[in-house]
């Protein structure tokens, strides 16, 4: 045996996946699905009957959870679809930078960073409330390496 020290450098994550497989026939309205490599919320599902030479097909209509675009996909009901891991966490708003980024309170270890780009619909409400000295809580949704503010709560004056 030698007295050498061995160091291992890991550049990979802990093996956590951005998606998981789920059988198409079990995905329901208000669930999540990945369509064209985008995380989406399902707004409509219809299933065709089994044809003479094939599987029943599921037709998904879904909305991208980050940009609001409508996407559609048709998948055999017995095949697997990718479903994104979607997390929604509330944070206390600490500060807003001039370029539209916010700093939020304690960040869980699995989150990408401690800043999120202001969601355009909430931009004015967040800036105005923060400017008035209100104590604000932002809800941040994260999926597939993206995160975005999706809701705002006013918990009173600071």
TrEMBL record:
Key words, A-Z: Hypusine, Protein biosynthesis
Residue intervals of the Translation initiation factor 5A C-terminal domain: 85-153
Top-rank taxon: Eukaryota
SUPFAM superfamilies in alphabetical order: Nucleic acid-binding proteins (SSF50249), Translation proteins SH3-like domain (SSF50104)
Gene Ontology BP terms: positive regulation of translational elongation; positive regulation of translational termination
Record-linked SMART domains: eIF-5a
Described function: Translation factor that promotes translation elongation and termination, particularly upon ribosome stalling at specific amino acid sequence contexts. Binds between the exit (E) and peptidyl (P) site of the ribosome and promotes rescue of stalled ribosome: specifically required for efficient translation of polyproline-containing peptides as well as other motifs that stall the ribosome. Acts as ribosome quality control (RQC) cofactor by joining the RQC complex to facilitate peptidyl transfer during CAT tailing step.
Family label: Belongs to the eIF-5A family.
The protein's name: Eukaryotic translation initiation factor 5A
